[in-house]
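Hello everyone,

My group is preparing for a crystallization screen and wants a predicted model to guide construct design. The compound we'll soak is zinc ion. Before spending weeks at the bench, it would help to have a computed complex in hand. I've included the protein sequence and the ligand's SMILES below. Output in structure-token form would be ideal because that's what our pipeline reads.
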Amino acid sequence: MAREYACKKCKAITIGKVCPICKSTELSPNWSGIILIFDAEKSLIATTLDIKKAHKYALKVA
Ligand SMILES: [Zn+2]
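Reply:
Good plan to model first. Here are the tokens for the complex, ready for your pipeline.
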């Protein structure tokens, strides 16, 4: 299974080397918790965490 990384800036989870959301290359293999955002505009969690795009995010990124 491919190792997943979390972006240090926006916490998006990716298996690539570049964050698909903010295009940052500052990715960390040390993260925990997963939040799935399907509709960022209607989601209270997304608003609270300042998430603007539907994606899979980490709760904590080290
Ligand atoms: Zn990012």
